[in-house]
Amino acid sequence: MQQTGTDSGLPFMKMHGLGNDFVVIDARKADIPVSAELVRALGDRHRGVGFDQLAVITLCADADVHLTFFNADGSFSSTCGNATRCIARYIMDETGQPAMTLRTERGLLAAEDAGNGLTRVNMGQPQLDWQDIPLAEAMDTLTLPIEGAPVGVGMGNPHCVFIVDDAGIVPIETFGPRVEHHPLFPQRTNVEIVQVLSRESIRLRIWERGTGVTLASGSCSCASAVATARLGLTGRRVNVHVDGGMIEIDWRDDGVWMTAPTAHVFNGTLTRAFLEAL
User: Fold this and answer.
1) Amino acid 170: pLDDT
2) Digit-coded pLDDT (tens) for 243-252
3) Which CATH number fits domain 151-253: 3.10.310.10, 1.20.140.10, 3.30.365.10, 3.40.50.1820?
4) What's the whole-number mean pLDDT along residues 179-183?
5) Distances in Å between the alpha carbon of 148 and those of 183, 197, 226?
């Protein structure tokens, strides 16, 4: 399968936000078709590059850039908060702008330099109605009819948030995939295991739809903070402690803002031999 790139192959960047890692393809200067087959091959951590999500940057008429996201299994994802932050930092460094906008399937997202090496992105308002998450039928999204009474939240993608006494003892490697494919979620779901540490702090473990266990996730952190605030367990501004570090979530009137560090690890080029073997 031929892919458009340079004569020597297809350039890419490797980035991560708190260990939630991404391959990023900058397609602003050339049309680069990205197939599910290419995504799966790139996502293989033994035979490809490896990532939690892949992001493609393209030009946009009403924003600084447009972003398209894919999960490691090749499926499309409408949002990816940490990748959005990483790319926002990359574009702001490139242009010298202190703030910018990015267009995703989630909508038009604002990003800004938060100082001290941190980047802040507004992930938009949470989706709290059953049809917007979406769920298979009408119900109260604050108490889903699943063992453990989780909270349903949409952040442009579906989330199922479980509040537990000890997040560390939940066997997320087996629990996560069972909930991901629960019939209540027609588009599958991300799964969050949350332990409330205080009114200002929660512990989060993550199973990402189409990827598996991850060290961090922006949208999962947003959904978890929204869920605990809706239950009255925390305020609307919390520090979310994930396996990869800490993300600050602030649910404001204009949306759910998240702030955390980013890392641009390296640039690389996929060889023609790799691409032609797909």
Assistant:
1) 98
2) 999 999 999 9
3) 3.10.310.10
4) 98
5) 16, 19, 18
